[in-house]
Design a protein that fits this description.
The complex is a heterodimer of chains A (306) and B (667). Chain A contains eleven helices and one strand. With 306 residues, chain A is mainly alpha-helical. In chain A, helix 1 crosses helix 9, helix 2 runs antiparallel to helix 9 and helix 9 packs across helix 10. The termini of chain A are far apart. Chain B is 71% helix and 4% strand. In chain B, the strands form two sheets. In chain B, strands 1-2 form a two-stranded antiparallel ribbon. A two-stranded antiparallel ribbon of chain B has the order 4-5. In chain B, helix 3 packs antiparallel against helix 21 and helix 17 packs parallel to helix 20. The chains are: A mainly alpha (306), B mainly alpha (667). Chains A and B meet through strand 1, helix 3, helix 4, helix 5 and helix 9 of A and helix 17, helix 18, helix 19, helix 22 and strand 3 of B. Strand 1 of chain A pairs parallel with strand 3 of chain B.
Amino acid sequence: MIVASLLLHGLGLALLPFLLPGVINRVKAWWGGRRGAPFLQPLWDTSRLLGKQPVYSVTTTAVFRLAPLVVLATTLVASLLAPMLPGGGLLPFANDFVAFAYVLGLGRMFLTLAALDTGSPFEGMGAAREATFSVFAEPALFLVLGTLALGSGHGTFAELMRPHGWQALLVTPLCALGLFLLLQIECARLPIDDPTTHLELTMIHEVLILDHSGADLAMMQYAASLKLTLYAGVLAALVNPIRVDDQPLLSALVSLVLMLTIAVIVGLFESLLARLRMRWIPQFAMAVAVVGFVALLLATTQPELG
Amino acid sequence: MLLLHAAILSLLIGAIACIALPGNRLRAAVGILSQVVATLLVLGAVVPVLGHQPAIIAQLNWSYPVDLILLRLDGLGALFLTFSMPLTLLGAVYAYGYLQPYFKSDRNIGVHYAILNMVSLSYLIIYSVENAMVFLLGWEIAALAAWLLVIWDYRNQRVRFAGFNYLVSTHLGLLFLITAFLVLFSETHSFDFGQFGKFLQHSSMTRNVTFMLLVASFGLKSAFFPMHTWLPRAHAAAPAHVSALMSGVIHKAGLYGLLRFTLLMSTPDEWMGWFLIAFALLSAVTGVMYTTVQRDLKRLLGYSSTENVGIACLGFGMGYLGLSWHNPVLVVLGFAGGLLHILHHAVFKCLLFYAAGAVYSATHSVDIERLGGLARRMPHTAIAFLLGGIAIAALPPLNGFVSEFLLYSGLFEDSVVGGQNRGLFVLAATVLAFVGAVSAFSITRAFGLTFLGTPRDPHIHEAHDPGLAMRSALYVLSALLFVFGLIPQVGLTMVAAPVGQFITLLHGGTDMARVLAVPLSLLMPIVAVGAAVLLLVGLLAAWRKWAMPAPAPAHRTWGCGYTEPLPRAQYTGASFSGHLASYYTTLLPTKLDSHMPQGPFPDEAHLRTHTVDVVEDRMFEVLDSGEETLGILSDNTPQTPRIAFAFGLVVLVGTIALVLASSGGRL
């Protein structure tokens, strides 16, 4: 069982972070009337970059060289905690979702520090934005996950994703909505951030990694896609109607379909929406917090807690 | 007890010798030596208490009005002594490097070392006496010693003002403490803590008033919002090691006082727990918000003390609720988390202040807007600051995350009954997450702008890493971050005895091993996660080295069309935090002084921004108008009795508080 889930996890790590962005890009291409790149194009891009030697700016220090390693390592560790494929992380422990958020926080810190290390005003701008928006997104994430934790035993991700009673009717949809909006903030998708633009003044994530190249860039991009996969995985696990204890394989399959559906929805959003103005993004994050708060209010009035 | 007496003797002899001996080098060496001896003696005495040994008890007979002085060094006092003494010693070692420029001058460095010895002496008194009068004596020694340490550079008017500000504030706190003690004396006719305890065990209106007085006093000592205004000024003005000791060690006495009286109260009321949680979160949020806009590195670290005592106190609030709900798990998680956070904060805050001090002694500036690119010139300091920053932002794998994780575990604890209670706990966790994210924001800003990029001001001196004395402090503390972060058993063993004392309040005897079991089982996965991150970073680094053996080509930073990056065009501290601060203008009002370029041929233009502390601003306003009122009153009073008039006013206020308190709500 452990070997099987490890294999499954490895397969997920190797495939999903390339497939989901591929699906998003394909959806955008279809909507725009183009044929689009193959689904696994991000995989070929990454393997091409991995063979290339990075170039380092003379301004940078060891922090810049360390950053891609830390970002990738933290995201990989986070993938062990999150229910990427259903059922919960490979290493479930009490309140592992707190560790999930904080491990990703370490990666974010190095991502922004590397941007400041280049001494470029554009990347400084990106660093300030990334750090500022995380201040608004982090509490929203805790509000949503904390609400889900109310009904669970020891607050492992696996238990969080198993809503029961009438909680499932009201709280879960709200939390799912909150998680989807958080995915758009945290994974730098529209309407928060435009992953395709090359105009430095309007970007967040892309401008942060402007100076990374070669293998370093590949690590950064893979980590970003993996983070998208993790958020999509959490969301899929939450709305997955099939319990992993009952039918593990079917549940995994349903989760996979759900994750692809989420990618399609993200792609549709990107085709239909324009990016928000920068100063509206904190309000967007606060809206998530409001959604989480309403869910919390509903959850605390549950009879079994009171 | 003999060991403690010997330690006191060593500190006193050391203090006298420091001042009397000739030559600054010798004085400093003697000062450090006496601290080493005292620290070893004290550790020899208290470490067994942290294990399974009973408390050290002794008594001294004194003349009227003190009579009998009871000394009782239990687990709680032992914990505070265990980190206070070595960290003060480390501060003394650091001072040897930091004060080096003064060694050749005719100033007597020995005085400084003598005062550091007095600080250590004050710990021995505060953390062991059971007598209110002697406690106040120790309290006052600590306050005066800290004040004298702050005004080291007394020729500077700004420093004198900061020192005076501190002196006044700390004595305001003292007034509250004296009032509380007098209330207790009037109820028990004794200054003995044991007698206080007998009275405090029963819920009454007087107990509530006393509790509030104590919280006000201890809160002011530990710089809780809104009584924090003295702190950023004092920390910016003092030498780096003094700031470090004040923030990390000396002012933890406030939290010690709170815990000491918690033990005396045995079962607090539920409202006290909720009050402490609200009070703590308020401090944490405002403290951390102020760190985002500071341009003075040491002021920034000063504000973060307000944040961190808030986080520790959040744990104590949870512990209070655990005591009143009879929930042992919550008691363990709350008090263990809070105490660990005190311990961890002492380590990383000292480290950060020492790194900031190294920056100051190398560049003569701690202004974020002028610095930049220091990592190339002072790599050791940069690494130390980065590690301290990761710890203070509570990120894995360092120690800050360990204590905050325990607090989160308490807040998500499922044995808490009641939907409302659990909902409020989730809200508290959300606030804690906000504090964590803002803390990461401001330490990224501080480290990124000071140490990375290129120097913003060409007039800054050619910087280099400090000498061995200062570096050794950085090394020791950096290592401790990993020890406490990756081997939580060390910290948990240290706090086990005091946490056991709190558990004993719930149900008689307690088994040490069981006290530790819950937090340890919660923390072990965290250690695995932290270790996994370190291991993966190592593996990935090895892979990159293996896959790309050739030296990496170097190039300029991509300037988006500009061929040469301009150091002055880099992001500044104000621009980094501008967007965030614009959402909190009530708390972080930014004053602008600008002359914008106008017309086709603009003349000189400038823009100056300054974010002020609202509380201090408002306080000075009130004081100003109050002074006017008092001035009118005192103009009608003859000249000499004016001081008597002021004293009379204070006595009047105190008396009214006493009457109110002793009436026990019967009025």
